[in-house]
Specification:
By secondary structure, this protein is mostly helical. It folds into two domains: about 55 residues, Single Sheet (Rubrerythrin, domain 2), CATH 2.20.28; about 325 residues, Citrate Synthase, domain 1 (Orthogonal Bundle), CATH 1.10.580.10. About 50% of the residues lie in helices and about 5% in strands. It has a three-stranded antiparallel beta sheet with strand order 1-2-3. It has a three-stranded antiparallel beta sheet with strand order 4-5-6. The longest helix is centred in the middle third of the chain and has 26 residues. Bound molecules: s-citryldethia Coenzyme A. S-citryldethia Coenzyme A binds next to helix 17.
Length: about 425
C-alpha cells in the first residue's frame, strides 16, 4: 500500500510519497519538492537525509545491528575471511570455492606495484603521514594504469588491481619511511599474511606468523569493510558522481577518512589513552573534560551519528583485545585505561543522555598495537579495510538509474544585490 506525507504550505496542500526500505525504514521522496512547491530541505551534515537507495549494508543504530548483504557482521567475523567478505560486498553474494580461488589468484597476480612508483614514495618527506602518502599514491595509480574503466570487465579488473595493490603500497610507504628494504608480495601467501610479511619481514629477521595475529587482522579488516553512507563513502560517491576514474574517487574517500572525527579517531584514541597514561592514569579527568562545554576535548572513540547504543564492532574488537594480548602473553596498560574509561562513561548521565557509547575506533588501536602496527598507520589500516566497501558503493552508484551528479542546494544568507565600488570611494572598516 503506497504511503504519503501531506505538506501544507501557503494555502496549498502537497502529497509526498514515502519510500519504505527492506527493514521498514522510511523516507520522504522529495524529488519533486522544489518543482512543485519552490521549497528545498535544509539538513547540515545530512543527518536526516537519505542520499541513495542501497542494498549493500544495513545498520540499525538503535539496536546495534550491522549486516553486509544481509549477513550479520558477527557471523562474518566468526567464519569469513577479509578476501571473502570483500567479494561478498562487491559482488552481492558469497563466492563459490572456484570463484574465491580465482579471486585469490587475481589478487596475488596484481599485488606488485609499478617500480617507478618507488621513486614517488622515496621523495615524500620522511615525516609524511602515511594517509597523505596513500591517498596521493592511489590517485597516482591512474597515471600508471590509464586503461578505460567502462565495460564490466575493465571495471572488475581495475577493482581487483586496486584491492591487490593497496596493501603493497601501504607496506611500501612504511618500509621506505623507516629507510628499510621494501619487501615484495609473495604468491604463496594469502592476503593478510602477505601484508604482515611486507610490513615486518627484514633481511636479518624473517617474519614469523602467529595464527592469532593473522586472524586478528582478518577480523579487524572485516569489521571495517563497509558502513553504509558514512563520511568517506559519501565522499567516494560524490566525487564518483562526476564520472571521474575509480582511483580518484577512492583517493577522495581516503582523504575524508583521515579526519580525527572519522577514521583518524583510531589514532586519536591511542594518543588520548597514552596522554592519560603518561599523566598518571586519571581517566576520570578525561570524562569530566569531555562533558565540559567550554572544553573542546572530546572522548575519542565515543559517540556515533547512527549508533545510539554500543557499536557492534566495538564489542567484537574489545573481546579481540583480550584474546590477542593473552595469546601473545602481552599486557597493554592502555587497554586497562580504556576499560576503566568505558566503565565510568557508560554509567555517566551525560553520556547516557547523549547516547554516547564506544564506537569501532575505541578499542581498535589496542589490537593494532598488539599486531605491531605503528600508531600513524592506524588510519591506513582502516582505509585498507574500508576499500571493498568504498568500491561496492561506487559500483552501486555507477549502476543506479537515479544517481546523478551530486549538487546540493543552499539557503543563501549573504548580502542582497549591491554594486562595485571604485577604489577611490572605498572606506576602510
Ligand atoms: C567513525 O559514520 C560512520 O559510520 C563512521 C564510522 C564508519 O565505520 O565509517 O563508524 C567510523 O568515524 C566512528 C566515529 C569516530 N569518531 C570519534 O570517535 C570522534 C569522537 N566522536 C565525535 O566527535 C562524534 O560523536 C561523532 C563525530 C562520531 C558524531 O558526531 P555527530 O553525530 O555530529 O554528533 P555531535 O557532534 O552533534 O554531538 C552530539 C552531542 C553534542 O553535545 P550537545 O552540543 O548536543 O550537548 O554529543 C556530544 C556533542 O558535544 N558528543 C560528545 C562526543 N560525541 C558527541 N561529547 C563528548 N565526547 C564525544 N566523543
Amino acid at each position: 500500500m503506497d504511503e504519503y506525507v501531506t505538506l501544507n504550505y501557503k494555502g496549498e496542500t502537497y502529497r509526498l510519497p514515502v519510500i519504505i526500505g527492506t527493514e521498514n525504514e522510511c523516507g520522504i521522496d522529495i524529488l519533486a519538492l522544489r518543482r512543485d512547491t519552490g521549497l528545498i530541505t535544509f539538513d547540515p551534515g545530512f543527518a536526516n537525509t537519505g542520499a541513495c537507495k542501497s542494498s549493500i549494508t544495513y545498520m540499525d543504530g538503535e539496536k546495534g545491528i550491522l549486516r553486509y548483504r544481509g549477513i550479520p557482521v558477527e557471523e562474518l567475523a566468526e567464519h569469513s575471511t577479509f578476501k571473502e567478505t570483500s567479494y561478498l560486498l562487491i559482488n552481492g553474494r558469497l563466492p563459490t570455492a572456484e570463484e574465491l580461488r580465482h579471486f585469490s589468484i587475481m589478487l596475488n597476480d596484481h599485488s606488485l606495484v609499478h617500480e617507478d612508483m618507488k621513486t614517488f614514495f622515496q621523495n615524500f618527506p620522511r615525516a609524511s603521514h602515511p594517509m597523505g602518502i596513500l591517498s596521493a599514491m592511489v590517485n597516482a595509480l591512474r597515471s600508471f594504469y590509464p586503461e578505460l574503466q567502462t565495460t564490466e570487465e575493465e571495471i572488475n579488473f581495475t577493482v581487483t588491481r586496486l584491492l591487490a595493490k593497496v596493501r603493497t603500497m601501504a607496506a611500501m610507504s612504511y618500509k621506505i619511511s623507516r629507510g628499510h628494504t621494501v619487501v615484495y608480495p609473495r604468491p604463496d601467501l594469502a592476503y593478510c599474511e602477505n601484508f604482515l610479511n611486507m610490513m615486518f619481514n627484514t633481511p636479518v629477521k624473517p617474519y614469523e606468523f602467529v595464527r592469532e595475529v593473522v586472524r586478528a587482522l582478518e577480523v579487524f579488516w572485516i569489521l571495517h569493510a563497509d558502513h553504509e553512507q558514512n563520511c568517506s563513502t559519501t565522499a567516494v560517491r560524490v566525487v564518483g558522481s562526476g564520472r571521474v576514474n575509480l582511483y580518484a574517487a577512492i583517493s577522495a574517500g581516503m582523504s575524508a577518512l583521515w579526519g580525527p572525527l572519522h577514521g583518524g579517531a583510531n589514532q586519536a584514541v591511542v594518543e588520548m589513552l597514552s596522554d592519560i597514561y603518561r599523566s598518571g592514569g586519571d581517566y576520570r579527568k578525561a570524562v569530566e573534560r569531555a562533558k565540559d562545554k567550554d572544553d573542546p576535548f572530546r572522548l575519542m572513540g565515543f559517540g556515533h551519528r547512527v549508533y545510539k547504543t554500543y557499536d557492534p564492532r566495538a564489542k567484537i574488537m574489545k573481546k579481540m583485545c583480550d584474546d590477542l594480548l593473552s595469546a601473545l602473553k602481552l599486557k597493554d596498560p592502555l587497554l586497562d585505561i580504556a576499560k576503566e574509561l568505558e566503565e565510568v562513561a557508560v554509567n555517566d548521565a551525560y553520556f547516557i543522555d547523549h547516547n554516547l557509547y564506544p564506537n569501532v575506533d575505541f578499542y581498535s588501536g589496542i589490537v593494532l598495537r598488539a599486531i605491531g602496527i605503528p600508531t600513524n598507520m592506524f588510519t591506513v589500516m582502516f582505509a585498507i579495510g574500508r576499500l571493498p566497501g568504498w568500491i561496492a558503493q561506487w559500483k552501486e552508484s555507477m549502476d543506479d538509474p537515479q544517481w546523478r551528479i551530486s549538487r546540493p542546494r543552499q539557503i543563501y544568507t549573504g548580502p542582497s544585490e549591491t554594486h562595485y565600488v571604485p577604489m577611490a570611494k572605498r572606506k576602510g572598516i
